[in-house]
UniProtKB/TrEMBL annotation:
<dbReference type="InterPro" id="IPR051531">
    <property type="entry name" value="N-acetyltransferase"/>
</dbReference>
<dbReference type="InterPro" id="IPR000182">
    <property type="entry name" value="GNAT_dom"/>
</dbReference>
<dbReference type="InterPro" id="IPR016181">
    <property type="entry name" value="Acyl_CoA_acyltransferase"/>
</dbReference>
<keyword id="KW-0808">Transferase</keyword>
<dbReference type="GO" id="GO:0016747">
    <property type="term" value="F:acyltransferase activity, transferring groups other than amino-acyl groups"/>
</dbReference>
<feature type="domain" description="N-acetyltransferase">
    <location>
        <begin position="11"/>
        <end position="100"/>
    </location>
</feature>
<dbReference type="Pfam" id="PF13302">
    <property type="entry name" value="Acetyltransf_3"/>
</dbReference>
<protein>
    <submittedName>
        <fullName>RimJ/RimL family protein N-acetyltransferase</fullName>
    </submittedName>
</protein>
Length: 144
C-alpha cells in the first residue's frame, strides 16, 4: 500500500496519506489512511480507512475533504470518484457530506462477497463530484 501511494505521488502529484491526530502540537499514532489516486480509467479514486477507535470523531470527513480539495488542485480535469458498500452507511454519509453524488447503485462482485445470499441487500454505490460518461461509469462498476 505504501509503495502504491509513493508511486501515485510520483506519477500524479497525489497519493494516500497516513492520518494522525495532533494534540497540543504532538502527533499521535496513525489512526488511518486517506487520499486520492488516479485510476486507469482516468478518474481520481478517493479512499479512506480508519481503525474502529477513530470512528465517529469526524476524522474521515476531515481527511476526505482534504483529499477532495487536493485532487481538485492537482488535476481539476479529472472527476473525483469513490465506491462504497451499502453495508457501510457511515462511509456513504461521509461521501455525501463532502459533496459527492450517487451516480450508480447495484450489485457488484464485492457486494456479492459481502452478502452472498443477497438476503441483506448489500449493494455497491459509485459516487462522483460530477456527471460521468457511460464508459467511465462502466469501468468504475467493473472495479467492484
Amino acid at each position: 500500500m505504501i509503495a502504491g501511494s509513493v508511486l501515485s505521488r510520483e506519477l500524479t502529484g497525489l497519493g494516500s496519506w497516513a492520518v494522525r491526530v495532533v494534540l497540543d502540537g504532538t502527533p499521535g499514532p496513525v489512526i488511518g489512511t486517506a487520499g486520492c489516486t488516479v485510476l486507469d480509467a482516468d478518474a481520481w479514486n478517493l479512499g479512506y480507512r480508519f481503525g474502529p477507535d477513530a470512528w465517529g470523531h469526524g476524522y474521515a470527513s476531515e481527511a476526505a475533504t482534504a483529499a477532495l480539495d487536493a485532487a481538485h488542485r492537482v488535476r481539476p480535469d479529472l472527476p473525483v470518484t469513490a465506491r462504497a458498500l451499502t453495508s457501510n452507511p457511515a462511509s456513504l454519509r461521509v461521501l455525501a457530506r463532502i459533496g459527492l453524488v450517487e451516480r450508480w447503485r447495484g450489485r457488484s462482485d464485492e457486494a456479492a462477497v459481502a452478502d452472498p445470499t443477497g438476503a441483506l441487500g448489500v449493494q455497491r454505490v459509485v459516487v462522483a463530484d460530477r456527471e460521468l460518461s457511460d464508459q467511465l461509469l462502466t469501468d468504475l462498476i467493473a472495479l467492484g
